[in-house]
Amino acid sequence: MSEFKMTTVEEMEAATNRLLETGAKVGADAWQFRVKNQTPHCKFGEQGVCCRICAMGPCRITPKAPRGICGCDAHGIVGRNFLKFTAGGAATHSDHGREICHTLYCAAEDGNYKVKDPEKLLRIAKEWGVETEGKDIYDLAHEMAEIGLMEYGKPFGYQRFLDRMPEGQKEKLIENEIAPRAIDREVSTSLHMAHMGCSSLPEALVKQSLRAGMADGWGGSMMGTEFSDVLFGTPKPIDTEANLGVMVAENVNIVVHGHDPSLSEMICEYADSPEMIAYAKEMGAKGITVSGVCCTSNEVAMRRGIPMAGNFLQQENVVLTGACEAIVVDVQCIFPALGPLSKCFHTKFVTTSPIAQMPDSEFIRFNAETAGENAKAIVKMAIENFKNRKPELVHIPDMKAKATVGYSVEAIVKTLDGVTNSQVDETGTTKPLLECITSGVIRGAVAMVGCNNPKIRPDYAHIELMKKLIANDIVVIASGCSAQAAAKAGLMDKSAKDICGAGLKRVCELADIPPVLHMGSCVDISRMMILAAELAKDSGLQINQLPVVGCAPEWMSEKAVSIGNYVVGTGIDTFLGVDPYVSGSSEMCELLTEGTRKWTGAAYTVETDIEKLTDLMIERIEEKRTALGI
Ligand code: XCC
Ligand code: SF4
């Protein structure tokens, strides 16, 4: 008998509407209203045919004006815009990775940051050919951090992590000029190419977009993920909860938001300390609840089981509960709207990074060296703010779902080991998973990633897609706001097996996993790349032959485009539910949906009809199976 009950998008919308009523009482603005003011969007922008990279413009392409003043056509303009978009994303993820390298460099036996997973550090050191024998683990950490930082600017060679690819793939990427060199170089080269009077040849612009993306996925993001694991621990399955109902009315609520776990890890530490809990009680609260929004939330959920209050388009809802003492942000995906919104409530909006400074916030500069003090000051500030709550404004929607998260590649390999009856001891490989796929018990896998976007009913596409995929025996691995959509709906609850096809249901039962596996934050999409590479190596196939596809149905950020480019660059077909501003150039559309195949074996599919998008993915997975004769 099925006991599984999903939280529906309708229920979530009703909860949001109730919160907007609170907002109306205090005169709060919200994205739902701003969207109306911005609609319809600029058509030139939508099609990608507006160019303002030099002061002769801005130039807009129309049938009557097919070229800009310099003579650039729509294909060149769309291509340059696409490349710049990618470079923005690659820079952002990679800079996050760089911050993590710096944090690793600060790690010390008696410091704020420790090496929590020394084995992983040793493993990567070995991979990089770094001598580990007889070395103090912190000396090694500092050495590795420095080598990692060099990957950003080294004058020669390609990204080290490319050696993780199946045989021949790195060479092929080098041959096609898609293999990323130094990370910063790929970002700079992209901006150089997109400067006035440089590249306007779509093919060259798309190639560089792929290369910049690869510098992110196989460079900056991968370093961010791997060294975060070294510092904070490699995620293992852990139980948690998701949706606004994780906030507790009687407690001091601190919401962490952004991406870099360096700050949120510290906040969690202090919020959990007896000293702070006692202080909260003294101030009239029962305790302290830390919950999260966006990828910072994913990071601490994966490693500590900290509950997820919501994803991208729920960030304002957190404040609208009237029960948020502090929303503490680091970098990326933070609405500047949180400043004025917090002013309508008692909420402290705390910015902490020089990278993300915003009006109407309290800036407490966070530093790896002074992390402990900074975190303590923030937690204290939140506690002391509890008394300023306006009880008549407090309403936390009674809505949350259970979720089991923490599926790093290491955890997936370990969990699936023993699912098959294989007699051979295959500990440490993806062979059990491959066996499930080859036998057809699982048809394939979809990597679901990305944001929310008001162009799509929030979470609707994520949830509908996932439901259909798992019903068709396709296992879903998810990260970012997509993972949070799944968690809120209940799809990361193990009982969600009841809505799977028979094959996937059996695997879920045997391995004791949910059908949608939380792999982490946006930078953790690098985990998905590692998993794909491992699957390819263990099966003797190339990555593009695997029945695996990527999907970002509700994406919105530049980072998402960079991700898309490295997923395609890695050889995985990628399905988008939102157009990346390229419809204004038939040549760019052709290149992205087919042309890249000759370089990487994969391409994009853009389809805004979600039902169709799902069918196309299932079709592609089945085509891959047929080609393999499985
Ligand atoms: Fe941001 Fe990473 Fe997108 Fe969510 S999913 S809206 S990028 S938080 Ni990466
Ligand atoms: Fe116009 Fe060319 Fe300048 Fe772009 S680069 S704004 S198309 S003149």
From TrEMBL:
GO molecular function term, any single one: hydroxylamine reductase activity
Binding site for [4Fe-4S] cluster 1: 42, 50
InterPro entries in the record: CO_DH_a-bundle (IPR016101), CODH (IPR010047), HCP/CODH (IPR004137), Prismane-like_a/b-sand (IPR016099), Prismane-like_sf (IPR011254)
UniProt cofactor(s): [4Fe-4S] cluster
Positions contributing to [4Fe-4S] cluster 2 binding: 51, 54, 59, 70
Binding site residues for [Ni-4Fe-4S] cluster: 259, 295, 333, 451, 481, 522
Enzyme Commission (EC) number: 1.2.7.4
Swiss-Prot/TrEMBL keywords: 4Fe-4S, Iron, Iron-sulfur, Metal-binding, Nickel, Oxidoreductase
One Gene Ontology biological process: generation of precursor metabolites and energy
Gene3D superfamilies from the UniProt entry: 1.20.1270.30, 3.40.50.2030
Origin superkingdom: Bacteria
Coiled coil location: none
Catalyzed chemical reaction(s): CO + 2 oxidized [2Fe-2S]-[ferredoxin] + H2O = 2 reduced [2Fe-2S]-[ferredoxin] + CO2 + 2 H(+)
PANTHER family for the chain: CARBON MONOXIDE DEHYDROGENASE, HYDROXYLAMINE REDUCTASE
Name this protein carries in UniProt: Carbon monoxide dehydrogenase
Native source organism of the sequence: Oliverpabstia intestinalis
